[in-house]
Amino acid sequence: MSEEPSPDQGETVRQAVRDGYARIAQGAGACCAPTSCCGSPGANQSAMAAGYSEAELASLPEGANMGLSCGNPVALAALRPGETAVDLGSGGGLDVFIAGPRVGPAGRAIGVDMTPEMLAKARRNIAAYREGAGLDNVEFRLGEIEHLPLADDSVDVVISNCVINLSPDKPQVWREIARVLRPGGRVAVSDLALLQPLPEAARQSASALVGCVAGAALVEETAAMAKAAGLVDVELSARPDYVQSAAQWSDPLYRRLMESLPVGKPLSDYVTSLDVRARKPK
To answer: What are the distances in angstroms from CA 124 to CA 19, 93, 277?
Structure first.
């Protein structure tokens, strides 16, 4: 498995991500996904390419979809009424607001994010969600995904969308997932993963880091970390079509990444959208 950053390096990475996503929340930074600007029609284009339906996107409070997705973990999770689901790195609340109606009035959808600006943006939309969905079953908590503000064995489902790859301590994230899941609970994660290591120029790019690429783990490392945390029935499903589509869009992040690759090597040779499913033993 690739070497994890030292504690000091990890905090530097975490702060860079926090600063980058604070700018995104404030509308002053580039999006993680290949969109022209957060909350624009490009965000819907990106979300639909990631697997969301027009109906799901139309039901959201304004600005909840910020174009930061690389999959649809809510659909992957097959949520059921009465379940408690937690979204790691919930951002503007996209997946929490979609999950809420799925778990219904007896369930709970909880978002965790370490960026106060993102948290404030999501919380401002709770009132619109309550009015539109007729439900009062979502909340957003400040916290790092390496140290979740949740009790042991307290949730049925953990979801996450294009976030774990940003963590400087991914094994700890997977251990936290296993800790908070109830016995028999399940994981449904959509993430970006590497098929092979990125060239150094792309890996060291701060913009690529905030773009969910440079910090990504190899596909086989992702499976190993989930299993090492004690999860079982780990299933990985690569979705190269998403990255192939991204390479055709005009987002500056992806353009810079492609320019850093060896001549003739497409981005999809290095990066894939990856759906991860697993469960905690009973």
So the answer is: 20, 10, 31
- Identify whether 260 is part of a domain: yes
Output phi, psi for 29, to 5 deg. -135, 170
User: What are 92-145's pLDDT values in tens digits?
Assistant: 999 999 999 999 999 999 999 999 999 999 999 999 999 999 999 999 999 999
Range of the domain at 136: 7-279
Q: What phi and psi values does residue 147 have, to the nearest 5 degrees?
A: -145, 75
Task: State pLDDT tens for residues 191-210.
Answer: 989 999 888 776 665 455 55
Please tell me the total count of domains within the chain.
1
* Under 8 Å between Cβ of 170 and 146: no
Write out the two tokens for 186: 């399940």
Residue 2 falls inside a structural domain = no
In whole angstroms, give the CA distance from residue 108 to residue 281: 22
Which 8-state DSSP code applies to residue 144? B
Residue 237 lies in a domain: yes
Closest by Cα among 210, 227, 201 to 38: 210
Full strand arrangement of the beta sheet holding 108-113? 138-142, 108-113, 84-88, 155-161, 181-194, 271-279, 232-239
Listed residue (197, 244, 198, 275) closest to 34, CA to CA: 244
